[in-house]
Write a structure and sequence with these properties.
Elements (H helix, E strand, L loop, with lengths): L5 H20 L10 E3 L11 H11 L3 E9 L5 E11 L8 E2 L12 E9 L12 E5 L2 E8 L1 E3 L9 E10 L2 E4 L7 E3 L2 E2 L2 E10 L6 E9 L14 E7 L7 E3 L9 E11 L17 E8 L8 E9 L5 E8 L3 E3 L2 E3 L7 E10 L4 E11 L13
Parallel strand pairs: 1-11, 13-23
Antiparallel strand pairs: 2-3, 2-5, 3-4, 5-9, 6-7, 7-15, 8-18, 9-10, 9-12, 13-18, 14-17, 14-19, 15-16, 19-20, 21-22, 23-24
């Protein structure tokens, strides 16, 4: 018969007692992970809604970038998020957002936090002239943002930023602005959007085909608007207070900027014909869409338009008198475009030979959702 050592039995028994004692008397402390994500408030240039951002982030395996500081009374602020990329786990309405390595809340009741996020996530150094992000002294800067980006191209970047401030106590983070107990970023566009639309009157059977639209006329050689290769930097302080804005845009100028140019001209659809009897019986075609850095200088510009009627030879004409303005703090700023605004220019073509007119310029928030002032995106 097999013999079992008494020493072995005693050792195992004592080990079991020690483990049982630890399980009963040792306090296991559960750390609480810092949970990051985007809010439910919802802004296509490139991103039109929360669902749009999630879909683009998941399909492109990209995310938003986060910088974050922890402050404890009597100590210097500690950088705990240094351009960390946050991505969705899945393409669903409310996914889990992940990052690595996981950070945890400080249970010290005197700990407070400041976060700033931006979209899309970028590197922290310049590579081949591409945009990049840095942070210094609690100021986020996105460098080398292209002045013009074709909004129809997937490569265009709809730059957005958001910030959150709050405290962690009683087992939960509390946002100072919203009172919610998770870090949920409310993004805002920092660029402006330019849209060119068109419709026609006259003879419906006479097709109107547009092959080119250029922004031109009456601008000094250094004007920023006409530069095709210009870039700018955008800076935003952490926290609720502080002034954000663009700096350092000194591009060269080509004299004109091409808004639309195609070897396959855009033929206006039958739905865009206005019989001028019922004002609601047509819908303007969208010809092109651009993301652009907001700036001044949009005073009395011109559009040079190439088009043809009924397959005839191309006609080039100038449409003058274009001015884009923005109401800021209840004051109309003539010739000024602004972040988060959409500028919709509508051209009216006469297919019976009456030429082209600037029908209207509409300025509105990028999105028209019913959300608080200043939160017109998410």
């Amino acid at each position: 018969m097999r013999k079992i050592s008494l020493i072995t039995i005693i050792t195992v028994t004592l080990g079991a007692v020690w483990l049982n004692s630890c399980c009963k008397h040792k306090e296991i402390v559960q750390e609480s992970a810092i949970d990051l994500g985007i809010s439910d408030k919802g802004t296509k240039a490139v991103v039109d809604s929360k669902a749009d951002l999630i879909s683009q982030a998941f399909s492109s395996d990209m995310g938003f970038g986060v910088y974050g500081y922890k402050s404890v009374t009597g100590s210097d602020p500690l950088l705990i998020f240094d351009n960390v990329e946050v991505k969705p786990e899945s393409n669903v309405a409310d996914p889990n957002w992940t990052y690595a390595p996981t950070r945890y809340w400080d249970k010290n009741p005197q700990a407070s936090y400041q976060f700033i996020a931006y979209w899309p996530h970028l590197g922290q150094t310049s590579v081949n002239g591409a945009a990049y992000a840095t942070q210094q002294n609690k100021v986020l800067t996105i460098h080398d943002i292209p002045f013009w980006q074709d909004g129809s191209l997937a490569a265009s970047a709809d730059f957005m930023t958001a910030e959150r401030v709050g405290n962690y106590s009683q087992g939960a983070f509390t946002d100072e602005q919203t009172g919610i107990t998770k870090v949920r970023f409310t993004f805002s566009h920092i660029l402006a959007k330019l849209v060119i639309k068109a419709y026609y009157v006259g003879v419906q059977a006479n097709d109107v085909s547009i092959s080119g639209i250029r922004l031109t006329k009456g601008l000094p050689s250094e004007n920023k608007i006409l530069s095709s290769d210009g870039k700018a930097s955008y800076s935003q302080p952490f926290g609720i207070t502080g002034t954000a804005g663009f700096t350092g845009n000194t591009p060269s100028s080509s004299g004109t900027h091409t808004l639309y140019n195609s070897d396959n001209p855009h033929t206006l659809s039958s739905e865009s014909f206005d019989d001028e009897i019922d004002p609601e019986d047509y819908v303007s075609d969208e010809i092109c869409q651009w993301l652009m850095v907001p700036c001044s200088g949009w005073n009395e510009l011109g559009l040079s338009v190439d088009y043809s009627i009924g397959g005839s030879s191309t006609i080039t004409t100038n449409v003058n008198g274009l001015t884009l303005s923005t109401t800021i703090d209840n004051q109309v700023q003539t010739g000024q475009t602004a972040s988060g605004k959409s500028y919709i220019i509508t051209l009216k073509f006469d297919s019976s030979g009456g030429g082209v007119d600037l029908q209207s310029v509409l300025v509105r928030n990028w999105t028209t959702q019913d959300v608080p002032t200043g939160v017109y995106n998410w």
